[in-house]
Amino acid sequence: MADPELEAIRQQRLAQLQSQFKSGNVDNKQAMEEKRQQIEDRRNAILIQVLDQSARARLNTLCLGKPEKGKMVEDMILNMAQRGQLSGKLGEKGLISLLESVNQQTQRKTVVKFDRRRAALDSDDDDL
């Protein structure tokens, strides 16, 4: 029942569809990468407009040391700029005060609990 000529056409069409899917997938990845790069360029352009050079350097240093916190501060600055809450360029002192407020909000209390009963039962003292 299966015609070899028909089977060859089906295989050829299947190969053609698979190659289109693979090239489409690569194009999709490239498009997503380009879009991500455009968004990052826009973010950097806005940050350059609202921060002076010393504040930008401090923010870049923060991003290198603590990327999550740096991203959070960048987002806060961008939101402030979009809402019009920033008048002029934000200097290093203004950025430091913003960082201090972020640190106060995100600071976690660490509690160290020392169990004296467990320390009193130490078997090393029996050797004397």
Automatic annotation (TrEMBL):
Signal peptide: none annotated. InterPro entries: PDCD5-like, PDCD5-like_sf. It comes from Habropoda laboriosa. One of its GO terms (molecular function) is DNA binding. Belongs to the PDCD5 family. It holds the Pfam family dsDNA_bind. One of its GO terms (cellular component) is nucleus. It comes from the Eukaryota. This is Programmed cell death protein 5.
